[in-house]
Amino acid sequence: MRILAIETSCDDTGITIFEAKDGTQNAEFKILADNLASQVKIHNQYGGVYPILAKREHEKNLPILLKKTFREAGFFQERSLGRSDGDGQRKFLAKNFRAESVKKSSFIDLICVTYGPGLEMCLWEGITFAKDLARGWGVPLVPVNHMEGHVLSVFGKNKGKFKVSKLKTPVLSLLVSGGHTQLVLSKKFMKYEIIGETLDDAVGEAFDKVARMLDLPYPGGPHISRLAEQARKSETRNSKFEIKFPRPMLNSNNFDFSYAGLKTAVLYFLKKNPAADKARVALEFENAAIECLTYKTARAIEKYKIKTLIVAGGVAANKHLRREMTKITSKKIKLLFPTLELARDNAVMIGIAGYLNFLKNKKKVPRQGSIKATGNLRL
Ligand code: KG4
Ligand code: ZN
After folding, report:
1. Is the minimum distance from the CB of 222 to ligand 1 under 6 angstroms?
2. Is the domain of 309 the same as that of 272?
3. Which domain does 225 fall in, by range?
4. What single-letter DSSP state applies at residue 202?
5. 218-244, pLDDT tens digit by residue?
6. How far apart are CA 85 and CA 239, in angstroms?
């Protein structure tokens, strides 16, 4: 089966084409082409994602990326897809793609698209595009929860072949991104129960905001992490500023998180100490932010007798987080991270989640009319 997956929930436009073979717990995938158009440069000047600009970029990028992805998958002859205006081209693509331009034997059988959570106007761009194509080509459309995509991203690669392997349950997923900080329990594969989450800012958002305070570019996570790693290597006891930031809710009797207080603590510290060494601030912030994640995850592992731990989402790229998570998992617990390419938003994870749900639902899909962008969709 050939599958096209589309992701537009925030500021990355992702399109992937892959082949998949049946079997929910041992499905085999082969990526034929995978593309991601990042909007980082556009949003950098605003210090965060500017929704209307993001929506326009998705609208512009989708047909371009689709063509590129089809070309890379070796699926069609270029000449019949000449038009380049956004909406006109989308309708043109949907109508004419099936014809001579695509080799019949290599046509798409299923489309998967993110329908939430995320920025609704961005989600709609992907959904309308996917609906046009599904209608034009007469193929089923599977709506995908972006967070389930992050969970299942640990199986993927953005090139070549990979398999979905059977996981020992219960599975605990720590989902850490720009919009989410959640601990999710799966007593059964692909069944989810949120056992804890942030009460205010997401951890990725805290990294981004602190980066902004330190005049680092958006998104700030990788920059803070780089500075913190530097400072960690050259830590000296007699540094001029003794920095200690709070670990909010560390001892609360639940699995929730809070990052607003930590962010404010950094802000006040910088106001009082404008000459503080940025790398040391980054280090102490990162230590505090990650310690909250590690501590609560360790407690959840113990309470629920977890057999598999998944750590996914943009912040799962963080080196310190990876090291600390390795420390809290014994040999008895399998620890899974996505590859660095698939930690951030991407279409591969949407394809995996869409295909596995398609199989789980015995190849039934919802009516197209019922598929709607759902900004606050939950697992
Ligand atoms: O999953 P993602 O790409 O998008 C959302 O769904 O939000 O996550 C993006 C978030 C941003 O806040 C970014 O700063 C953070 O992931 N991030 C990191 C690192 N790389 C990305 N945070 C900490 N350390 C990193 N190395
Ligand atoms: Zn995400």
Report:
1. yes
2. yes
3. 171-338
4. -
5. 899 999 999 999 999 887 655 555 789
6. 58
Mutating to test ligand 1, I would choose from 224, 225, 344 the residue with most ligand atoms within 8 A of its C-beta, which is 344
Structure tokens at 79: 């000449």
Give yes or no: residues 15 and 147 share one domain: yes
End-to-end Cα distance, the chain: 27
Ligand 1: which residue has its CA nearest to atom 14? Answer: 221
pTM attached to this predicted model: 0.93
For 7, 292, 361, the CA distances from 329, given in Å and listed in that order, are 32, 16, 33
pLDDT at 234: 84
Domains contained in the chain, number: 2
The ligand 1 atom at the shortest distance from the C-alpha of residue 177 is 8
The CATH number of whichever domain residue 74 belongs to comes to 3.30.420.40
As given in the structure block, the two tokens for residue 345 are 């938003």
* Residue-wise pLDDT tens digits, 51-73: 888 999 999 999 889 989 988 98
Does the annotation place 176 within a ligand binding site?
A: yes
Tell me the per-residue pLDDT of 89-131, one tens digit each, with 9 for 90 and over.
555 565 555 444 454 555 789 999 999 999 999 999 999 999 9
Q: List all residues 6 or more positions away from 272 whose beta carbon is below 8 Å from its beta carbon.
A: none
